[in-house]
Amino acid sequence: MDTTFAAQTLHCYPPAPALRGLVSHYWLSRDGGGDRHRVLPDGCVDLVLRLRDGDGAWQAFGTSTRPSDVPVEPGCVYFGIRFQPGQSRHFLPLPGRLLTDTAQPLARPADLSAERLAELIARPDPAFAVDRLLSRWLAGQPPQPRRLDGALALLSRSAAGVSVSALAARLNLSRRQLERDFLEWVGVPPKVFMGIRRSQQALALLSRPSPAAPLADIALAAGYTDQSHMTRELKRYLGVTPGAPRLPMHDVAFIQEQARAPT
What we know:
By secondary structure, this protein is α+β, with helices and mostly antiparallel strands. It folds into 2 domains: about 5-140, Jelly Rolls, CATH 2.60.120; about 145-255, Arc Repressor Mutant, subunit A. It has 8 helices and 8 strands; from the N terminus they run ββββββββαααααααα. The chain has a 6-stranded antiparallel sheet with strand order 1-2-7-4-5-8, with helices on one face. It has a two-stranded antiparallel sheet with strand order 3-6. A hairpin with a 2-residue loop joins strand 4 (about 45-50) and strand 5 (about 55-60). Helix 4 (about 165-170) crosses helix 5 and helix 6 crosses helix 8 (about 225-235). The longest helix has 17 residues, at about 190-205. The two termini are about 20 Å apart.
């Protein structure tokens, strides 16, 4: 994580089992210390509620393709819902393509009242109550599956090295259709999404406590063709190199893969 965020305490909560295909996790910060927080690409969309003195406002943060610094206001409480890749479409009125590398204000997404959420997240464990609200929303508009979900499921099972053409063929889609679906609902092309996922995996491996594995072995384990390939993508998507001395301080906890089942 960025050093300016070190004073902020982040709590993560897993969703109910019935929601885990759609929601990665909930996160909550009650004590933002101000300044800025560095966010790393993870292929996900976050719905964030900012609370200050009882007033709340929603923003949707889209899939990012580069590191970004987000302002953290002193005295504010932040609550986030991190959706699994491509699954924000079931809850938000905007497609992923309109959110990429940006944030948009939303009035009442998924019928979530900011005032009601403010009451819920004041509880010791707000996840159960938020689960109920999201489940009620889905009961009125059940999720509609797409073949995109099959592609995302395949990629979640360590298929980062597969080509876009092979992935499309496996799902009986044209490459062009697969790319359109990724852009529309995930917010990035499949090739970029795969690069982000590889970078996530590499960062997690590089951030493990010593003794560290050789960089060439980490590159292969993360799905890269070689070490130089890993270096290029880490610089592109995460803004770091494998040997960066500050690498373990980056915000691994915010990466979707690392927080899939938080405690």
